[in-house]
């Protein structure tokens, strides 16, 4: 019997609603699948801790997380603390310290969910560079408050950083349709983005079977809306992929559906799994957050642990619920609560006799 230890950080807002629901579902998958068990330890890190101690996580938080097999994360962000403090204090701190450089975000129209597209088909994976680029945290401000104030936000692209995310994306493309869209803005951004295009061509030589398309990020937003069926694997920078993946999740029906894996592909550190949405100020505390994104995230976590059978079983249960027409939360046009959707997925798991 394999025994996994999962660190659970619900964080803020609806993270505190969808992550406990996700743990319930993961425990149900483990019970149904057999062969492995989960032990989860929950950490109450986030904005409440910040208000009490001035820190989003304890000083030794990274050491605490390090021995776990994976991290299951909700979201950060509250109305009374600047967003950059909550994000850098917890989520970005973990992603960057554990070198989780590949942020992988599938988006797909699940059966029974129409989404806003009404035509076309959406089944793609966005690979987001997750360690540098626009979120390198470099820059500064001078002449604060004066008319001549200047602020810089420096994007950093290193050959090592771009090359490793490109290889990850090409490898992933090999396991799917052998089609990769490389997204940049290399017409306007003539240094880092040109390096990105050059390295894509270099790495592409090692993958002659993969068809590569280069697309500018602004045009790419229109491709997502007008020709989603032409998209399979996409590789883009930290910022561009952040934006494109919210768009892709919305096109799949709701921001509440999209999952994320923050991977250290070399497995030196634990990887972190989270729904793509944030803490959702407008619906927090109402019990109506869509938990499907956190469940799908659970399936990515299972896949990472090597439990492919359990991951497939969980996706089957999610799709049985959506194909049957719900229950759906209000973001998908329904009236169900987070708890109703959770119970429906657990029932589907128990009824699955494959
Ligand atoms: P958001 O994702 O929290 O919400 C955007 C919209 O989508 C809201 O209308 C919200 O109600 C809806 N939505 C999101 N998830 C949903 C779900 N599961 N079910 C139903 N509806 C859902 O983005 P935002 O409003 O830009 O940000 C709010 C806060 O979250 C900010 O503090 C921001 O910094 C933070 N944030 C954190 C993360 C993270 O921790 N990974 C990611 C994005 C945003
Ligand atoms: Mn985002």
UniProtKB/TrEMBL annotation:
GO MF annotations, alphabetized: tartrate dehydrogenase activity
Q: Which reaction does it catalyse?
A: (2R,3R)-tartrate + H(+) = (R)-glycerate + CO2; tartrate + NAD(+) = 2-hydroxy-3-oxosuccinate + NADH + H(+); (R)-malate + NAD(+) = pyruvate + CO2 + NADH; (2R,3R)-tartrate + NAD(+) = 2-hydroxy-3-oxosuccinate + NADH + H(+)
Extract the PROSITE patterns matched here.
IDH_IMDH
Q: What is its EC number?
A: 1.1.1.83, 1.1.1.93, 4.1.1.73
Its cofactor is: Mn(2+); K(+); Mg(2+)
- Where would I find the Isopropylmalate dehydrogenase-like domain in this sequence? 5-345
Q: What is this protein called?
A: D-malate dehydrogenase [decarboxylating]
Instruction: Write down the species.
Output: Aquibaculum arenosum
Instruction: Give the organism's phylogenetic lineage.
Output: Bacteria, Pseudomonadati, Pseudomonadota, Alphaproteobacteria, Rhodospirillales
């Amino acid at each position: 019997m394999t025994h996994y230890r999962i660190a659970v950080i619900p964080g803020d807002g609806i993270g505190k609603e969808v992550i406990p629901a996700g743990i319930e579902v993961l425990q149900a998958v483990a019970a149904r699948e057999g062969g492995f068990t989960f032990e989860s330890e929950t950490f109450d890190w986030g904005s409440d801790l910040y208000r009490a101690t001035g820190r989003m996580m304890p000083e030794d938080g990274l050491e605490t997380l390090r021995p776990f097999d994976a991290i299951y994360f909700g979201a950060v962000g509250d109305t009374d603390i600047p967003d950059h403090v909550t994000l850098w204090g917890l989520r970005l701190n973990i992603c960057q310290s554990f070198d989780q450089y590949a942020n992988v975000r599938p988006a797909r129209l699940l059966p029974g969910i129409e989404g806003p597209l009404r035509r076309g088909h959406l089944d793609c994976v966005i690979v987001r560079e997750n360690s540098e680029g626009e979120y390198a945290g470099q820059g500064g401000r001078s002449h604060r408050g004066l008319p001549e104030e200047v602020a810089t936000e420096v994007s950093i692209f290193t050959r090592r950083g771009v090359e490793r995310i490109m290889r990850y994306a090409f490898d992933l493309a090999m396991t799917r349709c052998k089609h990769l869209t490389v997204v940049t803005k290399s017409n306007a951004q003539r240094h880092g983005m040109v390096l990105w295009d050059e390295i894509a061509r270099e790495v592409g030589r090692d993958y002659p079977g993969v068809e590569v398309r280069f697309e500018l990020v602004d045009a790419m937003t229109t491709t997502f809306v007008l020709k989603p069926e032409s998209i399979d694997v996409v590789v883009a920078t930290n910022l561009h992929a952040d934006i494109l993946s919210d768009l892709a999740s919305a096109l799949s029906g709701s921001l509440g559906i999209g999952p994320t894996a923050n991977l250290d592909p070399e497995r030196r550190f634990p990887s972190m799994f989270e729904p793509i949405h944030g803490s959702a100020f407008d619906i927090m505390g109402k019990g109506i957050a869509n938990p499907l994104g956190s469940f799908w995230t659970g399936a990515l976590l299972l896949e990472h642990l090597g439990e492919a059978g359990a991951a497939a079983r969980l996706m089957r249960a999610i799709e049985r619920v959506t194909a049957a027409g719900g229950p759906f939360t209000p973001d998908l046009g329904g009236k169900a609560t987070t708890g109703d959707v959770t119970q429906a997925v657990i029932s589907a798991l128990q009824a699955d006799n494959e």
